[in-house]
Fold each of these.
Amino acid sequence: MHLFRSALGVKCGWRVIALLLLASGGMALRSAEAVDLTVDSGTTTISSASSYGNTNVATSASDLATLAVTTSGTLTNSGDLAVGYSGSGTLNVTGGSVTNTIGYVGYRAGCTASTPRS
């Protein structure tokens, strides 16, 4: 498995067919297999249709991370969504939608997680 880390602290493990960097500074990944999204620091914004295998926010105890899903944004996971997996994570959905198989908020003991309402 290859690893890509952006300047915002976003890691994606993938088996790549193509990686496209968009002019807006976002990225689109196209693969025959599901891609996982991991947000370990800063804020990552989903503002269009995005599909992943699993999404994890704040995977290490020292992580402070936010995943924002804005108007017109749809986050679809074929697997799990874990907010505050081990660290301090926030899922902020403002007009968008999130779909997943299983969702965890505050996954491990000692972590913090929130899902603020707007």
Amino acid sequence: MSKVAELRSTRGPARSPEPPDDLGEVEKAAWRAIALEFAITDAGGLALLTDYARSLHLARRCAEQIELDGLQPKPGKAHPLLKVMHDARSSARAALKALNLDLEPLRDGVGRPASGR
């Protein structure tokens, strides 16, 4: 299935979109949580959410490799993946910013949330 078809929103009853298969379990969980909490179902939102999760996945993989190799695998030289990790984290932040997730999550009812009494 093409990426465009994978992201295309459907008409009719809302269904929960699924994260891409190439993500790690941690990133899939983050993808699902954000998509559910903010009701992201449109193609543009799903594309940005996927960019966010893939950037997180890359940053995590870089961090894991850096942890194994050390910050300076060669004396006097910083690990080459440090820049990749930094750029991936910057991309993740940019995707979140583009999603405008600083808004209040959607709620079922109007007004203040009910107390838990």
